[in-house]
Amino acid sequence: MKKIAFTTSGNNLEAEMDPRFGRAASFLLYDMSQQSFTILENQQARNAAQGAGIQAAETIVRAGVDTLVTGHCGPKAFKVLEAAGVAVFNSTAATVADALEALQAGSLTAAAASDVEGHW
Amino acid sequence: MSKNHIRELVVLSGKGGTGKTSVTASFAVLAGKAVLADCDVDAADLHLLLKPETEQRHAFLSGNEAIIRQQDCISCGRCLELCRFDAVRAVGSVYRIDPVACEGCGVCVRFCPAKAIDFPERMCGEWMVSGTRCGPMVHAQLGVAAENSGKLVTTVREQAWAVAVDKRLQLIISDGPPGIGCPVIASLSGVSLALVITEPTVSGLHDLQRVLALARHFSVPTAVCVNKWDINPHQTERIEAAARSAGAEVTGRIRYDRMVTQAQLQQKAVVELDSTAGADIRTLWKQTLALL
Amino acid sequence: MAATSRNRSFRIAVASGKGGTGKTTVSINLAAMFGEPVQLADCDVEEPNVNLFLRCEQLVTEQVSMLVPEVDPGRCTGCGACGELCQFRGIVSLGSRALVFPELCHGCGGCAQVCPNAAITERPHQIGTVSVGQAGSIRLVEGRLDVGVSLVPPVIRAVREQLRDDMPAILDAPPGTSCPVVATLRECDYLLLVTDPTPFGLHDLKLAVALARELSLPCGVVVNRAGEDLVGLYQYCQTENLPVLLSLPDDRQIAEVSSRGNVIAHALPEYGLMFAELAAKLKQELKTAGGRP
Predict the structure, then answer these.
(1) Is A16–B3 a contact, with Cβ atoms under 8 angstroms apart?
(2) Counting beta carbons within 10 angstroms of the beta carbon of residue C272, is it exposed (0 to 12), middle (13 to 18) or buried (19 or more)?
(3) Could you read off the pLDDT of B172-215 as tens digits, one per residue?
């Protein structure tokens, strides 16, 4: 667990978590060793008419993320993340800071499969 | 105001023409002040009843389209050979791409040996923020042969949320798209309540079950209302039973009433006229508010 | 006109700018009163409802499939060229073996072309079905999209391919004016637009007429639920040179018969006559190809 992505609608640790993955507003990328963060816009996926989850997965994989914390992750995105070796955790925490704390405390369990059915 | 205090109601129907928009417009009137979001972009009719005055317009771009630059085309025919969508038309040695048939896959662009094909973003329509007698409204208009998409619905909903936060309004009422495809899912995810308007017909029941299954997958609380229920009371009961067993609330029934058409002709919401359907919709609104 | 150049019997598409105007009702009743054997194609493949009324029991069903990529793991190097080309995220490669998402694939074949290691072949993937049946003088061709698939046009194309050339055809189009409707209207000779006299109906009719214009299709109008206030609609039709071929009154009996899944032309004979007249007018229209907007 070196670089963690949180889905968020804001731009700092106190910002609200965005429960969506594919069409999340942006990702807060938290670097564990530096204890610092950067914000990564999810523009490309939000611009996709379809397959936003796959595009979002691609975006965070390319950013070197190894762990994702989000509300819900669909099956296609999960498949891409799994293939790229990204661990996925679900959290209903209100803010990114709360979710980070829960993750560090080990109280989040890794999602073994996507938790929502995909679009059909 | 925090986003957490905003409630969002989406009005859906398994298929088009069940009276969804008439109900949405009536709710808008009864709510007094709410943000209205027209997510039924294929047949965006809410504006006909609410007569919005547009304050902002934005282009809506989605996907790309291939366009051959005639001066650079070497007429080799490679694009025609590769296109699986019959979008390349050749007249003599002149090659053109039919914009309606073009799927936007980019294969011709990639393989054109003369690099003579441009691939600009496709302008599909526009989305607008307007003012109405019932509050602000976010809506969109698509070009001919353009299609509604999850992206467009997401855009409309997000703008509606932004307006709600900005104007401190606590309720968003969306007119949802028909069907069960991607646009419906985009209109449904994360709302406080989905109200499904259906009709007591053979197809109504079938279409309703598909929508309810969808709502269940996204853990959205649902309520069902049968419109024109008295044209087939037996089928109405079957539909209501099916709704209950799918975990939805049954809220109100609306009687068959030709005043609904009259209201449309006068560009009014049904509840703005004295009518039986209007009375039923008022009751429905009270029950819906209780569920929100 | 396609019909004359290919020596094929005529095809009439029935469409409306939006759902719920009675498009399917008009298609079925027109077919029932056509006066000769006719084909009825249900192109509303997301919600095919025609057979709920015709009730053909013996349907011969065929698969409709589309080519989607298949990756040979032994040859794929994870170079990412396929994912870069794909506009629909139907194939993604992130340093590992490429992953395929058939439900997002549009079947363009680009990934197989671009792969430098010949690791991609294409295989058929079912996206829907086409069924053919007979109900009296009506030959039904019904398209049905599989649940979970969003690619409508290929299924409609498959419906069109099942239509015989030696018999006239009525095509019940999906609602709206988007790609599936365009796919239905291809190779049709006439467009029958169903509308109601409300501002909604008129607004959506205008969109449908714009589409007809773009496709250079002659068209005529059926007014459903015609109430008292028809002035606006009739004025529009006159200005646009659109013949109004039938006006159905706003009659509660029609709604009741339809809600039970019955055919109006059979249950209410006076309406049967109106549809027979519509069929006759349409045949006349096709001869003159009038009403070109």
Answers:
(1) yes
(2) middle
(3) 999 998 776 667 877 887 789 999 999 998 778 877 887 888 78
Scanning the structure block, which residue is given the tokens 């942006």?
A: A26
Strands (E), chain B: 7-12, 35-38, 53-64, 67-68, 88-91, 94-97, 117-118, 121-132, 135-142, 171-175, 193-198, 222-227, 249-254
- A118–C147 C-beta distance less than 8 A: no
Which two tokens mark A81? 């993340």
Query: Tokens for C37?
Result: 């054997």
Interstrand relation of C91-92 and C99-100 (parallel, antiparallel or unpaired): antiparallel
* pLDDT tens-digit map of A49-65: 778 889 999 999 989 99
| Closest CB to A49 among B62, B180, B190 | B62
Instruction: For residue B33, report the phi and psi dihedrals to the nearest 5 degrees.
Output: -130, 110
Question: How many Å apart are CA C189 and CA C75, to the nearest integer?
Answer: 49
Nearest to B16 among C19, C211, C215 (CB): C19
Q: By the 8 A CB rule, do A39 and A29 touch?
A: yes
- Distance of alpha carbon C133 from alpha carbon C147, whole angstroms: 22
Could you tell me the pLDDT band of residue B1, with boundaries at 50, 70 and 90? very low
Q: A47 — contact with chain B (CB < 8 Å)?
A: yes
- Name every chain C residue with its beta carbon within 8 A of the beta carbon of B142: 178
A64 touches chain C (CB under 8 A): no
Of the partner residues A48, A58, A120, the one whose CB lies closest to the CB of residue C92: A58
Residue-wise over C11-34: b if at least 16 C-beta within 10 A, else e? bbbbbbbbbbbbbbbbbbbbbbbb
* pLDDT for C3: 41
Say what the pLDDT of residue B16 is. 66
DSSP characters over A76-103: HHHHHHHHTT-EEEE---SBHHHHHHHH
A-chain CB neighbours of B149 within 8 Å are: 49-50
pTM of the model: 0.75
pLDDT confidence tier of residue C293, bands split at 50, 70 and 90:
very low
Give the pLDDT band of residue A76 (cuts 50, 70, 90): confident
Mutate to test the interface with C, among A80, A81, A114 (most CBs of C within 10 A): A80
Minimum CA–CA partner of A43 in chain B: B151
Q: Does C157 touch chain B (CB under 8 A)?
A: no
User: Which of A50, A83, A118 is the closest to C94 by Cβ?
Assistant: A83
C200 touches chain A (CB under 8 A): no
Q: Which two tokens stand for residue B221?
A: 């609380």
The rounded distance, in Å, linking the Cα atoms of B167 and C236 is 40
- Mean pLDDT in residue range C185-211: 88
Could you tell me the CA-to-CA distances from C35 to B257, C30, C220, C264 in Å, in that order?
35, 9, 20, 16
Which of these, B61, B7, B11, lies nearest to B194 by C-alpha position? B11
Nearest of B44, B202, B184 to residue B128 by alpha carbon:
B44
pLDDT at residue number A113: 63
Predicted confidence (pLDDT) at residue C4 exceeds the cutoff of 70: no
* Whether C184 contacts C171, CB under 8 Å: yes
- Arithmetic mean of pLDDT, C253-275: 92
Mean pLDDT computed over B14-18: 71
Chains in touch with C (3+ beta-carbon pairs under 8 Å) read A, B
Subunit contact A49:B218, Cβ cutoff 8 A: no
